[in-house]
Amino acid sequence: MKALRYVAVGQAPEVVEIPIPKPGPGQVLLKVTAGGVCHSDDFVMGLPEKEYLEQGYPLPMTLGHEGAGIVHELGEGVDSTLKVGDAVAVYGPWGCGRCHNCSMGMENYCTNAAAEGIRPPGLGSQGSMAEYMIVDDARHLVPLDGLDPVKNVSLTDAGLTPYHAIKRSLPKLGAGTFAVVIGTGGLGHVGIQILKALSGATIIALDVSDEKLELATHVGADHVIISDAAAAEKIRDLTNGLGVNAVFDFVGATPTMALAQSIAALDSDVTIVGIGGGSMTLGFGAIAYDAAVRIPYWGSRSELIEVLDLARAGKIDVEIQTYSLDDGPQAYEALAASTIRGRAVIVP
Question: Residues 336, 341, 343, 345: is their CA dihedral positive or negative?
Fold first, then answer.
């Protein structure tokens, strides 16, 4: 079968031929229908060799932590309602299934995963950018129930991650409140739609180009602002000098984090979702009183089900650009060049 793999540190991913894997006990073999391209892949491939190996990433590694497919074969002992032929989405943050967090479906916060070497597909385990993939356990598969896999595969991360981030802040986002989304790309444009569907907040979207902000307007942002040195003052003007009740930073660079810190209102939430390598300095007086800073990771299995329900209800819609598996390397070139509108999807 064909697979898009990271084969050498510092080199672009390559399409190679490898054997179709065989599911072991408890595993499921999927015939892949779609795999999503993400900045996390780019981040991992950008690590220096020493750091890459120290963090336990294998070489070669099939990319793709957003996946959807058709159940092709069940491994021995799979105890599930799954049947061969079922269309499913892959829940990516795999955990041990036994710890307290996993027992509540929050495998994204598994307390045993690191010690037991359990890694997400495409981020340590072999991923979805291939004609077939192994899923470690049937519990990590969620029925698509009629959803188009190509259109919706990105929801397994680009929908689940902002949904998890936003859901925690919903008590602060009733009518008359303000929410800021920094970065309106793959995750941010879905985050705007989630805020629109679930909150009463006025949504202010920030990005660095008019093209990015056009997408933000298209998906429901109430105000759009170029993210520059004047952005904080413009946001203060919109909020009568009070600041915003929640900020969702889908970039995570030092300048965007500083902006988020500067516009946070009293008793607000600042949520850093992006992996832009930034940092902030906190202390008494450095941020509004009683503001909370959070750095969430992915989301729970039950939240993925809720995200897919939102898609079925027509509340969220991912802007996608599709690539064949053979053209997968070009998708990562476009990602690095920031020319993708929304999310890129590999279709084997």
Answer: negative
Report if pTM > 0.85. Answer: yes
Pick the CATH number of 2-157+299-347 from 3.90.180.10, 2.60.40.2470, 3.20.20.70, 1.10.10.10: 3.90.180.10
* Out of 2-6, 111-115, 231-235, 337-341, least confident range: 337-341
**160-294 architecture in CATH?**
3-Layer(aba) Sandwich (3.40)
Cα–Cα distance measured from residue 136 to residue 23, given in angstroms and rounded to the nearest whole number: 9
Q: Tell me, what DSSP letter sits at residue 130?
A: B
* CB contact at 8 A, 342 and 151: no
Give 52's contacts (C-beta < 8 A, 6+ positions apart). Answer: 9, 44
Does position 56 have pLDDT exceeding 90, yes or no? no
The candidate with the shortest Cα–Cα distance to 184, out of 176, 173, 195, 174, is: 195
Domain residue spans in the chain?
A: 2-157+299-347, 160-294
Strand pairing report for 244-249 and 178-182: parallel
Say how many C-beta atoms besides its own lie within 10 A of residue 70's C-beta: 17
